[in-house]
Structure formats: C-alpha cells, structure tokens
Specification:
By secondary structure, the chain is an alpha+beta fold. It has twelve helices and 18 strands.
Length: 445
C-alpha cells in the first residue's frame, strides 16, 4: 500500500488547520510519556492541542479547541487516545483495501469468472473460511490485499481451457475486472464526500495572516523563552509574514532550522496585542535548530449545510472534482520534481499516522482523509507499472494492439516478477523509513 500524500498541506487544511512538526520531543526523562506532567501533583492536567500531519488540527466552526490529558502517576492517558485514533485510521485504510479488492472480486463474480481467493493483508493467515469454492482470509500484515484466480494454479481441478477462467475471457471482460478496483475506490471517494456533505456539511476555510502555534512542548526552547499555545507568529527578525497559506509554515520552519543557538526575534500576535519574543533554538544532533513547537496555517473552518438534495449533489460534485484535481496535480508535481518530492511518497505506517492525527483532532476530518486516500490510491494503482493494476491493463493494451496475440508467457512473468520485487523492496523501505520517522520512535532512540 503506497500513496502520494504530498498534496496534503492544502488538502488537509480544508478540514483542519495544517501543521508541520519542526522539532523532536524534548530530552527523555526517566519515563517515556509523550507529554510530561507540569507538576508533581498526582493528577496534572496538561492542555495540549492534538496534532495532524501536514499537518493539521481540526478547527470546528472556527473555534480552536484544546483537549485535557490527565497524567496519573507517570501514566499519560493521551496514549489511550492515540491508540484509539490509530485504530480508527487503520480501520479507514482497511475499508479502502476491502473496497478495492471487492471491486475486482465482484467484477469477476458477476461475469461468472472463477475466483479462488479473496484476502485482506499479506503473510500468514489469521482467519479464513470457504464459500462457493472461494477462500476468504484475513492475514497478518494489513499492508494491502489481493484477489486470486485459479488460471495458473497447478492444484486447481478446473480445466485449462475453461471459458470462465480469467485468461480465457475476451479482452474487454479482463479490462473490466482489472480496472474495477480503481473504479471502486473512485466511487467510494465520492460516496464518502456525499455522506460528509449530507450529514456534516461542506467545510469552508478562511485564511488569516501569520502561522498558528497549536502546541508548545514542555521544557523546549519555545516554552523556556515564553511562547504559548495559541500564539500567532506574525514576523521573524523584523520581517513581516504578510501572506497567507501553507507555504508560510515552511518558511518559519526553515528560519528556525537554520538558526541553531542563534537568537531569533519572533513577532507574536497574542489575543488583541502584539508582542516580541526572543527565542534561541536548541541544536539538534544533525546541526539544525529546533524550538519544540508544532505549527499550522492560521485558518478557521466553518461548515455550510446544504438546503436541499440538489445542493447536496452540487456541493459533493464540486468537492469531489476539487480534491481529484489536487491529487492529480500533486502526482504530476511528484514526477516532474521527483528528486525533491520522492520523500513525500508514503507507506502504510505514514498513512495510518496521518489518519490517526486527523482522528485525534476531529473525527469529521476522517471523511476527507478517506476520500483523499481513495483518490490517491486510485491514481497510483492505474499507473502502467508492473505489479499494479495499470501494468496489467498495459499488457492487455499490447495484446489488443497485436491483434489478440498475447506476449510470451515467460516474458510476461519475468516483467511481472521484477515489478513485484520492486514493489516489495519499496514497501519495505517505506515501512522502515516511516516507522523510524514516528515521533515516539525518535523519542525512544
């Protein structure tokens, strides 16, 4: 399961205020609490703004919310909140996988094509049952799924010339089966957006100057020098941040990272007044600066409820095409500037991390997270690469161009095997990289 989430700064900002983490957690104490108590009292209430990758926090109806976490005897109950949000994000990802594989399955089943297996996940089987000659299973590693056909299964008792084997069907029938997964994800994305508009409302974003500080880590440089959650950064070193938009966050991050152990003058909007604060970023092990905050564009969200069913369809269509355009544009930028944007390609761990932060911030945000993820995966799976749906469609296109003559079986298998190996290597790389980039792992290291 691979997705390009590089479009997220402006996509996720539509249902929550984007943020980019610019520092690691503060130096470790004797415990590994993610948020340390502020006092030695038995129950310290720590008000923390829940973060979102790309980086976001939900703002419901324009209000900036804070959630109390109670740390009792060294136990941070925010861990349980995090576990719940991770499960919610994993459930969203699993649902998307099931929808994709169900597209393939039902496209074959409704055409009378033989199917031998339907699996969610890879690796050892955790649970399975058989029905109508199909094995349904849940496997150990929920990194994807597959639908298997008995076409080249030596243990199958179906004759090789059976007209209901996938390989013996006309090209059009096979195109329908192979493309059905992508079509299912696109339809699912629209259904999710439709449900959001109908039951929650259409999110509308209003941007304001500056960069919001939703969270300040305890014991960090920012906390030490007087920066507070809810402050808005309006300028740095006497240079005003006059524009609006997600790019402001990156600019502030760059100034901080390039200023280790050097005083930076922050112009801060705090309530109805402006103040100046001198902050000296701490030095990371890699030589960059950090002040221990999380940043987001300074935006407020409201929701527009449709007045009738016609507006539900109109709002849903507008939102669907807007998100689709952003996803396609993001993918185009990734290929045009691959050396700079390759790091934004994400695997299952990073995807679940994004979804977990969305869920912690605002459950409503899971609607657009799921829709965006569906569209991302649909676009990526349709790429003409071996081991992806688009690669199989490319073989069918070649077959059609050759007048119905298939490529030699051995050549096709070699190409597909190399593609599968490439996907496995890329998947393992993303799994390791994304796991090591998790804040909790950085804190332990």
């Amino acid at each position: 399961m691979i997705a390009n989430l590089s479009s997220s700064p402006h996509l996720f900002a539509r249902f929550s205020s984007s943020r980019i983490p610019i520092s690691d957690f503060p130096p470790k104490s004797k415990t590994h609490n993610l948020f340390k108590p502020l006092s030695s009292s038995p129950c310290s209430i720590i008000y923390r703004d829940t973060p979102i990758p790309f980086r976001s926090r939900g703002l419901r109806d324009g209000a900036r919310k804070k959630f109390p976490t109670c740390a009792i005897g060294g136990l941070d109950l925010g861990v349980f909140e995090s576990a719940q949000s991770v499960l919610e994000a994993a459930a969203v990802l699993t649902a998307i996988i099931v929808v994709h594989e169900s597209g393939h399955f039902f496209a074959a089943y409704l055409q009378g094509i033989h199917v031998s297996k339907f699996a969610v996940g890879f690796g050892p089987i955790l649970a399975k049952f058989n029905s109508k000659n199909v094995e349904y299973s849940v496997r150990a590693f929920p990194l994807g799924g597959f639908v298997a056909f008995p076409d080249n299964d030596p243990d199958s008792d179906i004759p090789a010339d059976d007209v209901n084997l996938l390989k013996n069907r006309p090209i059009f029938d096979r195109v329908v089966v192979i493309s059905a997964g992508v079509i299912a994800n696109i339809v699912f994305a629209y259904v999710i957006i439709f449900a959001q508009v109908l039951f929650v409302g259409l999110p509308v974003q209003e941007s304001f100057p500056g960069v919001l500080v939703p969270e300040v880590r305890p014991y960090s440089a920012a906390s030490r020098d007087g920066l507070l959650p809810g402050d808005v950064i309006l300028g740095l070193d006497d240079v005003e941040l006059s524009r609006t938009g997600p790019s402001l966050v990156s600019e502030v991050v760059d100034v901080i990272r390039n200023s280790p152990n050097r005083k930076v003058v922050f112009k801060i909007g705090r309530g109805t007044e402006n103040v100046k604060i001198n902050i000296t970023p701490d030095k990371n092990v890699d030589g960059t600066g950090r002040i221990g905050v999380q940043l987001s564009p300074n935006v407020k969200l409201s929701k527009v409820k449709p007045r009738d069913l016609f507006e539900v369809f109109r709002f849903s269509g507008r939102e669907f095409w807007g998100l689709s355009s952003n996803v396609l544009d993001s993918l185009k930028q990734t290929f045009m500037n691959f050396s700079q944007s390759a790091s934004k390609v994400s695997g299952p761990v990073a995807i679940i991390a994004v979804g977990a932060e969305v869920a912690k911030s605002n459950t409503d945000g899971l609607f657009q997270f799921a829709a965006i993820l569906n569209l991302n995966l649909a676009v990526i799976y349709i790429l003409p690469l071996p081991a992806l749906d688009g690669g199989s469609l490319a073989f069918l296109l070649i077959e059609a161009a050759r007048g119905g003559r298939k490529l030699p079986f051995e050549l096709e298998q070699q190409i597909m095997s190399s593609g599968i190996m490439l996907v496995i290597v890329l998947g393992v790389f993303l799994l390791v990289r994304d796991t090591l980039n998790l804040d909790i792992i950085k804190d332990l290291l």
